[in-house]
Amino acid sequence: MTSSRKTEVLQLLRNSGDYVSGQQICETLGISRTAVWKIMNQLKEEGYEIEAGQNKGYRLNGTPDVLSLAELQSRVKTRMAGKELLYFDVIDSTNLEAKRRAEEGAPEGLLIVADKQVAGRGRRGRSWESPAGANIFMTLLLRPSYSADCVSMVTLVMALSVAQAIEEVSKLPVRIKWPNDIVVNKKKVVGILTELTMEADYVQYMVSGVGINVNQTSFPEEISATASSLYLEKGQKVNRALLVQKSMEHFDENYEIFCRTDDMTGLIGAYNTLLVNKEVTVRVLDPRGEYEGIAHGINEKGELIVEKEDGSVENVYAGEVSVRGIYGYV
């Protein structure tokens, strides 16, 4: 049975919220009763709770925590972000795959999602822990018309969008550690890596990769003090496909606002509301010399506004500069 048919059946059941008759499914999709029966059985085998009522039809009562093409396609209905979807059980890196597809001419809005990565990378080339069946690894392809100067801000837009999605789905106290780490209870739960390819003096394409620690149950001792998962912080599992859906919906909306001005003007308020560094003392790890000051949020360029002890103000660019709390990671 093709994934597209499963996608269509899931959409019908999910959009209805109640019973959908077998006859209606047959007529809507142009398939036989036998085909409907086979699809329902296949979905049940995958963990979907489907109730069959006599003279009523079928109703979706529960969804397993699965990342599959059918599950994702039945959920993600956005204008741009995720309008095309590719899913992999295992992949080297969603960023690498997005770049390969971009070179082949893939359109803006292509979303690559994987259950497991074997060559994931974080900021400054750090490896990203990627077990199967627990987390989200996804990369969105963008083909911007703005200049390369705006690229660092897109990472902030993605961070804001994913943070809003996590807050909506999990109800956890989500915060952003400038510029793009997402933390819950001062522990990192999301890493974002945005990369671009230039041609002459314009951006040919860019990819924004997101790794979310969703249902991971433990971490290596060396990072357990600073890393966590939504499951560990909430005490119950979070549906990953729903989180992908909401992340793309929020990005669709936020990116449209961003593109109106090619900067953070329309998103400063929303971003600063979630900023864990706001109005606290931070240490700026600048290669030219470290210093401390009070962070007052971001400006329209996505720079962190830091007031130093002598009263002078520095606008910190996200490039290779890191910001830490004076007592640790946050």
TrEMBL record:
One family from Pfam that matches here is HTH_11
Q: Provide the E.C. number(s) assigned to this enzyme.
A: 6.3.4.15
User: Which InterPro entries does its entry note?
Assistant: aa-tRNA-synth_II/BPL/LPL (IPR045864), ArsR-like_HTH (IPR011991), Bifunct_BirA (IPR030855), Biotin_CoA_COase_ligase (IPR004408), BPL_C (IPR003142), BPL_LPL_catalytic (IPR004143), HTH_11 (IPR013196), Transcriptional_repressor_C (IPR008988)
Q: What class of enzyme is it?
A: ligase
Transmembrane regions: none
Catalyses: biotin + L-lysyl-[protein] + ATP = N(6)-biotinyl-L-lysyl-[protein] + AMP + diphosphate + H(+)
Q: Does the keyword Transmembrane apply?
A: no
Q: Tell me which residues bind biotin.
A: 93-95, 117, 121-123, 188
Domain of life where this protein originates: Bacteria
Which UniProt key words apply to this protein? Answer: ATP-binding, Biotin, DNA-binding, Ligase, Nucleotide-binding, Repressor, Transcription, Transcription regulation
Please report the name of this protein according to its UniProt entry.
Bifunctional ligase/repressor BirA
Q: Which organism is it from?
A: Suilimivivens aceti
